[in-house]
Structure formats: structure tokens, C-alpha cells
Amino acid sequence: MADLSIDLAGIRSPNPFWLASAPPTNSGYQVMRAFEAGWGGAVWKTLGDPIVNVSSRFAGLQVGSQRMFAMNNIELITDRPLEVNLKEIREVKKRFPDRAVVASLMMEPKKESWQELVKRVQDVGVDGFELNFGCPHGMSERGMGSAVGQVPELVQQSTEWVVEAAEVPVIVKLTPNITDIRHTARAAAQGGANAISMINTINSLMGVDLDTWYPVPHVDGKGAHGGYCGPAVKPIALHMVADCARDPDINIPISGIGGVSTWRDAVEYLLMGATGVQVCTAAMHHGFGIVEDMIDGLNHYLDDRGLASVRELTGRSVHRYTEWGNLNLEYKVVARIDQDACIRCNKCYIACEDTAHQCIDRVPQPDGIHRLVVREEDCVGCNLCSMVCPVDDCITMVQVDASKPAQTWREREMARIGGK
Amino acid sequence: MSERLESSSLFASIHRSLGRMDVVHEANRCLYCYDAPCTQACPTHIDVPAFIHKIRTGNLKGSARVIMEANPAGASCARVCPTEELCEGACVLNKEDVAIRIGDLQRYVTDWVREHDVELFQPGPPTGFRVAVVGGGPAGLSAARELARMGHSVTIYEAKSRLGGLNTYGIVPFRLPEDVALWEAEQVVKLGVTVHTDTAVGRDISPQELLTRFDAVVLAFGMGAVPRLGIEGEELTGVWDAIELIERVKTGKSIGEIGSTVVVIGAGNTAVDAATCSKRLGAEQVTMVYRRTEKEMTAYEFEYDFAKQEGVEFRWLSAPTRILGEEGRVRGVEFIRMRLEAADDSGRPRPVPIPGSEYVVEADTVIRAIGQHRLTEVLQGLGVECRDGVIQVDERFRTSNPKVFAAGDCTFEKGRGEAMVVEAAEQGKVAAWSLHQQWSHMQRV
Ligand SMILES: Cc1cc2nc3c(=O)[nH]c(=O)nc-3n(C[C@H](O)[C@H](O)[C@H](O)COP(=O)(O)OP(=O)(O)OC[C@H]3O[C@@H](n4cnc5c(N)ncnc54)[C@H](O)[C@@H]3O)c2cc1C
Ligand SMILES: Cc1cc2nc3c(=O)[nH]c(=O)nc-3n(C[C@H](O)[C@H](O)[C@H](O)COP(=O)(O)O)c2cc1C
Ligand code: SF4
Ligand code: SF4
Ligand code: SF4
């Protein structure tokens, strides 16, 4: 059994799986149930000044038979009184001293307000703070959440106020609704944040009802943009995590959030630089029990790879994530089809024929059935056929011409300019 | 067994009802293959991935149109096609997974369209050409529908009082309820096709008259009754022609007492239907007796499995020699054992009696299901070439008379297609197309 415990800027937890600040961490009852199920930490549903929520708040995206491929929401921060939340946080921490209990906070951009909230919450024994500069709806219209999170100067300022008053580590949660997340991440680091977490939800309009022509979800016939999350957002979040991980000016631990549903997703985040992950949608889809396989699967993975600690994964793939100009232009792969595995659905053929490079032939065989054969000299190695093929490992992309010396675009340009 | 119980099991479909969730999951499993083998394997070439995709997008009307366009008997076929030999047998998922339940999905869509009174097809602008269709079974209806869509004026002559052919009268109700067949017929009639029921060509109207009154004739009269066995005792009460027995049952007519022991002679589609029908009529012991073996039987695998499941027993390598009776009623059958010799002209091993091996089995009812007669009276004076009562057609379903086309079971002979609903539907369709093609360069007012 590998060691799954992590230490995110001084916040320790027995495993890297935390619940993100969201409905699953709304109350002490829920967080205790989650901890009983095995979650390593929980970021409490964002605390702040009292708000009123609307009814009809979520919508799900279904792709084929897969429900909740994504969801969006127009929920605001906690609608429960602060005293009640604080009392419950204290109880949870007392019952589960080994788990990470982090309080998510959101305040109007005023120093006194922020610092007063920090002190009150600190008193109940939280292990850290997470500043919610990410909520993309509602709160942002009131100058909070992503309204702050989209302006690096405001991020830095609020972070400084909190760090000044806080005695426990401070995580800044970033919004993805920005062109380049590194600017706000750098501002958080500059402001003294001990860690950053990302992503909060993405601006979205989930859909339009084909019968009523109302937006989905709607509140009494009207809709507003909401925050998008779930498996569909993982690639977007992963790129942001990786961008921050390789930025020399950021250099603080990262808590990865966005579409984590399995231990596999978590491993990817860790490899791309995260110290731990946070989960919301997957828990909302299946309940707290899913953490069991997250822990179990991660354990087996680490054992199989001979790794003693999950910490050994963090950042291991970051150096392989670079700019396009650093990719080897001489690297060439072609598609190769395993004729025994092929079930002759012709999906590779039509994909290449209609939308790639017309280099898969259907070659008739004496038995009347045809074979799918790649004309390797014409294949550009785009991978499309191997993506649409329904049979695992039936189409593999194999390297050819491996003997050629590597040359990147950057190198080629340098040579060209140098040669002039 | 009480009468109510009997009739409920006779009319209770063997097809379980399909939940929407089940259907959508199954539809989502389809890969949407390109040049899909399932479509190639369907005799009518239904674009299977297209109709399944339309289930996924909630376009059930479009889905039904894809099915019914290719196969005017698509609703019946969803229930009676030997799918594992056709579309499902060809599904690429057989190799790594299990085939898509294409028949079930097709049944779901066609049930939906039957319940929702949706107009799928319209008649074409009138061409002035007149066609007579002889026989309103799947082949005739299919030809009539295509001809009407092309704007030709179509008249169907049907000997029975209702359309649908064997789909309405011949296939047991628990496999194919008559309302499915009648709905299909109604779709054709709605296109403005004229129908003369209770009108047998050759009896009520002469074939030559058709030739003079119409520009062309499509023959689709199927096959006839089950031939006699040609043995002693066939006139006894309790000896049945399988097709007649099923027709009586399906139309709610009395068949008298079936008794507790039933012997069915034959091992094809019809024999299976007669045997399972007998079981559901309350017979305790039903035995199918065949002169060859399990290997040579012509019933489909699924039919054989179904018969076994229904508790039907089998006796191989035996042929009836006489039917025994008492007071005019069947009491038993004498059989003689057979052995198989080298293949005959049908390509199957030839059964030969073993002298002195006669034995008797008890029976209250004997049902013969040894094929069907050829109807030849319809052909009088049409100048159509036949071989052993089978109309000879080319690949476009043209007969030797350029004004006469033929499709379905009346053209069926060994080694040329199969006597199946789906084949009949395809042939009717192609016959209509080739007729249309012949006319497309002509004008008529
Ligand atoms: C018991 C049984 C079970 C079967 N099970 C299956 C099955 O599971 N799957 C499958 O695919 N196939 C099955 N078949 C075969 C299938 O029913 C036939 O292949 C199909 O019905 C042939 O269609 P058709 O239109 O050529 O002939 P038919 O369906 O026989 O229709 C011919 C029509 O012509 C009419 N007619 C006949 N003579 C005249 C005349 N002189 N004038 C006017 N009208 C006339 C008849 O009344 C009839 O309505 C089964 C057949 C039987 C008997
Ligand atoms: C209904 C709902 C409410 C949320 N509320 C908050 C919140 O109060 N504070 C916060 O920081 N993030 C909130 N989030 C964002 C999540 O914490 C998380 O960043 C996001 O859902 C991405 O993770 P996921 O893909 O695992 O769901 C909320 C998300 C959802 C779905
Ligand atoms: S990799 Fe791209 S170009 Fe090559 S065969 Fe596949 S689809 Fe065609
Ligand atoms: S997509 Fe895969 S399984 Fe399908 S034909 Fe191509 S190689 Fe074969
Ligand atoms: S072969 Fe199977 S998977 Fe492919 S289109 Fe047909 S039903 Fe779908």
C-alpha cells in the first residue's frame, strides 16, 4: 500500500481527494458522511454575507446514454447563517481531526470585511482558507467572485488582506473565465497565497427547451448564464493547471479541480502539477461512495508502478507540456490496423475519407468481406481513425522514419533566419 | 384448460414490450457503421444505422419512414424476420460484444408509428397507367404501394375478405397479431389503391380480362393449401391442414377439440407455428415428426428454440404411413423409420424407409405441414412460363409475358431466395420499380 497522504502548502490530508466547495459540502451532516465514506478533505460551501438562492438551479448535459457529462448551475454561495456553518465546521473538525477542512470565503472587496470574516472562521479551527474569486454568476454582478477573479490587481489586493489576517494557509481559487489564467495566478502568488486551486465553473448557457423555447434551466420563464463543470470541462481545466505548473512566476502548489470523476483523472492532474484534486460533479452524480474506487484505484496504480507515495506523481509530466514551436516536426506516426481485431464497421474509412486525408482503402477479399488498409505513404498521422475506432487497440499509431534527427519549428526558423 | 386462458395465451404476444430506456440504451450502443453490414444483410436494405440514429435524436417519424420506405412490411418483419440470420447476424458487434437488437428497435419504432397515426407516404402525380395486383399479401401490398407512390393507378384483387395474406391469416397470432398486418395494408390503401376483396382471380374474374383491362399485372398470390399426405385415414376428423388450422384460430373460428396429443408432420416454419399453436390451444403433448433429422429441418434456429421452449417434442427420421381412427375420429398415426442416403436434388440427404420398422403413436389430432400447393388456376391464359407450378421470373421480376410481373411466394423455388415476408416485400418493391422503369420513357393520357 502506497502512502496517499498529501501536504498542500501545509494543509495535510490522508488522501488527495477533497470535495470542492459546492452543494456536497453544504452542511456538517454532509461533510461527516463524506468523511465516513473516505474523502480526504472538504472545502466548505462558500461562506459570506447572506444571500437568497433561486429555485430551479441546475441543468445537466447528456451525451448519448451518458447523463451528467456536464452540469451547470446558477446557485450562489451558502444560504445558511454563518453561525450555523461555523458551529458545524467546529464539530466536523473535532470528529475528523485528520481530514482537511478548508473554509471557502467570499466577501465584498473591502479589507475590514475580509479580515473580520477570516478571524471569525479561523476561530473554529479550519485547516485553511480558499478564496472564491471564481463564481461566474450572481455574485459577480455584485462585484464579487469572478468580478474580482478576472482582474489581477484585485486578486492580489484581496489576497494580501486575507493573508495578513490568516494564521492558516490560504488557497486562491481561480476562475477560468479569463483569456490567460496565468495572469491571475501570478497575482495570487504575488499577493502571498500559499496555493492556488482551479478551476471554478465556466460561463455557460446549458440549452434551450425545444418545446417551450425557454432557456435551460429557467426560473419562471427566464434564464441566466451559469457555471459549467463536470467531465466535459476536464481538458480545459487540465490545461490551466499545466500552464500554471510550468510558469516560473507562480511556483506555489496547485489543487486541481474540474471534471475529476475517477482516480485516473486525478492521476492526470497530479502528473500535470497538482498536489491534490477537488471533486464536485462526480459526487453530485453518484454520491460520496465513489471515493472508494478513487482511493483503491490510485493505490493499485501506485503499487503497480512501484511508487511509494502519491507525492511522487506531482508534476512528473509538466516538462513534457510545452509550446507548439518546441514540437519535433520530423516525428512521424502512421495508423496501423490490426486485422484480427477489426470488426469492419468502416468508421475509420469514412472518417479518413470524408474528413481527413483519404488514405484508408477498403480492399475486397476473396471471402467477399473487405479489409481496411492504410496507405501509409499518404497518412499524415492525424490520429482520427484511431479515435473513432470502437475496438480498443485495434488501430495503433506507430512511429515511422525514426532515424531522422529531430527539428522543431523554432529550430527551423532559427536556422532559416540565421542562414539569411 | 378454460377457454379464456386458452385464448389469452393464443393472442398474448411473445415479444416483450420495450421500455423507452431500454430502447434508447440499445440505440446508443449502435456504432452507426458506414456501409453497414446489417443493411446489406437485410433483403429490403433498410438503412439500419440511419433508423437507429433517428431513435437517438428523438426523430421517430423519420425513423419509421426509413424503415417503411425500404420495407412496406417493416412492422410485421420486426416480429417475424429471422433476424439472427439477417441483419443481426451481420452486425459487427457480434464479434466483440452482442449484436444490436435491430428487430426490437424496429418493432419499437413501427409500434410508435402505428399508435400515432402519422402519414408516411403520399401517392404520386397520376401517370394514367393502370396495374392489377393479384393477391394482397406482403408481396402484392409492397408492389401496390410503390406503384401508387409513382402515381400509377393500382387495383388489388384479393381472394380473402381482408388484406395481408399470410401475415393476416397464416402466422400465429402470438408471433404476429393481425392488427399489425392490417395496419400495413391500410397504409397502402390510403394511397388511393382500389381493393377488391373476396375476389379470386381465375374464379371471380378471368386472368385474361385483367390483361385487357390493365396495362400490366403483378402476380403475388402466394402459395396454396398444404398438400395431402396421400395416405390412408386423411379424411378422419382431427386431421388438419396447418395453414387452415392457424387461420381458423387466428380469426376466432372453432376448431373443435384439439385433444391432449397432437402430432405435427413436417419441420418447417409452418410446422413450428402449428405445433406451438396446438400447445397454446391446450394440447398436453405435441410432437413434430420429420423424415429427416434436426440438421435438415427448414425451420429457423429461433423457431426451433421457440418450439422447444414451448414444450414441443421432436421425433426425427420417421414418415407417416397411415392415420388410424375410431368412429371417424383420429386415434393414432403409424410411422415407418427412415434412414438417410446420399443427397437428393434439393441438396439434402434422401430419406429411405427401413422395411418392417413401422410403429404407432397415439394422436387426437394430426396436423400436416409439409409445404404448400402451387396455385396454377390464376395463370390460365396469361402466357407466363412456369416450372413445376412456379412462375419463372428474371432478376427484375419480369415473367415471360412483358405485361406480367410476379413476386413473393408464387415465384419461390428451392435455391432461389427464401419464402419469407421480407423477401416477398422486397420482390414486390423491385417488381414495381422495374414496371415503372419500363414505363418511365412512355407517356400516357
Ligand atoms: C405458418 C406460417 C408461418 C410463417 N412464418 C414466417 C416467419 O416467421 N417469417 C417469415 O419471414 N415468413 C414466414 N412465413 C412465410 C411468409 O408468410 C410468406 O413468405 C409470405 O407471406 C409470402 O408473401 P406473399 O405475398 O408472396 O404471399 P401470401 O402472404 O401468401 O399472400 C398471397 C395472397 O394472395 C391471395 N390469393 C391467392 N390466390 C388468389 C387469387 N386467385 N386471386 C386473388 N388473390 C389470391 C391470398 O389470399 C393471399 O392473401 C410463414 C408462413 C406460414 C404459412
Ligand atoms: C451547484 C454548484 C455550486 C457551486 N458552488 C460553489 C461555491 O459556492 N463556491 C465555489 O468556490 N465553487 C462552487 N462551485 C464550483 C465547484 O466547487 C467546482 O469548482 C466545479 O464544480 C468544478 O468541479 P467539478 O467538475 O468536479 O464539478 C459550485 C459548483 C456547483 C455545481
Ligand atoms: S491517421 Fe488520419 S490520415 Fe492517417 S489513416 Fe488515420 S485518419 Fe487517415
Ligand atoms: S474503425 Fe476499427 S473496427 Fe472499424 S473498420 Fe476501422 S479498424 Fe476496423
Ligand atoms: S452493424 Fe450493428 S453496430 Fe453497425 S450499424 Fe448495423 S446495427 Fe449498428
TrEMBL record, chain A:
Recorded catalytic activity of this chain's protein: (S)-dihydroorotate + fumarate = orotate + succinate; 5,6-dihydrothymine + NAD(+) = thymine + NADH + H(+); 5,6-dihydrouracil + NAD(+) = uracil + NADH + H(+)
Domain 4Fe-4S ferredoxin-type: 333-362, 370-400
Cofactor(s) annotated in UniProt: FMN
Molecular function via GO: dihydroorotate dehydrogenase (fumarate) activity; dihydropyrimidine dehydrogenase (NAD+) activity; iron-sulfur cluster binding; metal ion binding
Source domain of life: Bacteria
Enzyme class: oxidoreductase
Matches recorded under Gene3D superfamilies: 3.30.70.20, Aldolase class I
A cellular component annotation (GO) from this entry: cytoplasm
InterPro entries with a match to the protein in the record: 4Fe4S_Fe-S-bd, 4Fe4S_Fe_S_CS, Aldolase_TIM, Dihydroorotate_DH_cat
Subunit field text: Homodimer. Heterotetramer of 2 PreA and 2 PreT subunits.
Family listed: Belongs to the dihydropyrimidine dehydrogenase family.
The protein, known as: Dihydrothymine dehydrogenase
Organism lineage: Bacteria, Bacillati, Bacillota, Bacilli, Bacillales
TrEMBL record, chain B:
InterPro entries: 4Fe4S_Fe-S-bd, DPD_II, FAD/NAD-bd_sf, FAD/NAD-binding_dom, Helical_ferredxn
Matches recorded under Pfam families: Fer4_20, Pyr_redox_2
GO terms of molecular function: iron-sulfur cluster binding; oxidoreductase activity
Residues covered by the 4Fe-4S ferredoxin-type domain: 21-54
Name the UniProt record assigns to this protein: Oxidoreductase
